[in-house]
Design a protein that fits this description.
This protein is an all-alpha fold. The protein has 3 helices and no strands.
């Protein structure tokens, strides 16, 4: 019974880690609960960070950002949902 708390704490930490790396929190929490938080962490490490990188400084940026938080350069990609309409 006392092992449930550390197990669930690790599952929550895997979910937070997945959210920071722009991965599906629900999928990684379910993998952590069903298989193991260690297995979910290994899968997350193998898949890597899914956030876009700045072409100038190669730092990770927020997917919704219009300019890099590290170097300040504008980002060339379009936002998800933006169809790239030109006027």
């Amino acid at each position: 019974m006392e092992l449930y708390f550390p197990y669930l704490l690790l599952v929550v930490l895997i979910g937070i880690w997945a959210a920071k790396w722009n991965r599906s929190v629900l999928i990684f929490v379910l993998v952590g609960v069903i298989l193991s938080p260690v297995v979910a962490g290994i899968i997350l490490l193998i898949l890597g960070n899914n956030n876009p990188k700045c072409p100038s400084c190669k730092g990770y940026v927020d997917p919704t950002a219009s300019k890099c938080k590290n170097c300040g350069d504008p980002l060339p990609y379009t936002l998800p949902g933006d169809r790239g309409t030109s006027d």
